[in-house]
Write the structure tokens for this entry.
Amino acid sequence: MADRYVFADEAGNFHFSLEPGATQYFVLTTVTLDDCQVGKDLLDLRRELAWDGIYLDRVFHATEDEQAVRDRVFALLATASFRVDATIFEKRKTVPNRQNDVGFYQLAWYLHFKYVAPQIVAGTDRLLVTAASLGTKKQRGIFHKAVSSVVFQVSPTLTHRVAFWPYESDPCLQVADYCTWAVQRKWEQGDDRSHVLIADKIISEYDVWWIGQKYFY
């Protein structure tokens, strides 16, 4: 029996249109750990940055961090041990009845985790899945139930729990944020500079509708 920790984040939005601000892709990424040491290391890095005169008034966040900070974070991640799985959704290929936040979010989790779960956990293991919370208070409750439902359906182990926490609350969620950001930059902007730094940890990166040719908007 072993403990498995999964931390999840997503990139992209739920705007299903070609209007400015709507992302082309939605990316769901999970980071799987045998322990949470990388989170402790990330906290140590924040203190090291302070000694170096770089004071962060918030936790690490790839989108907002300066490049000098990103470089230090990715250098740390390159030495850590974890597994990354990313599922890519080209939103224009989403059937109309799934073009809403809850329906699409649950579908994304199902298509992602039905593949990942059997790869990372055995029937005798314990599994803790922690997803970065999003949306309004009401939406957070619905999204939490959606993730819990998927884990219940596809997890090989009956000993599993699902948490839905703000990404600021756990440094391992910030690891997931950085990995998700790197994957999204590659797909959304064609920028793989950060992606190559964690490429050896990415076990799966799957465009789930790559074969589809039909666009719905």
Notes: Residues 42 and 171 are 7 Å apart (CA to CA). The radius of gyration is 17 Å. The helical segments are 37-51, 67-79, 101-120, 137-154, 171-189.
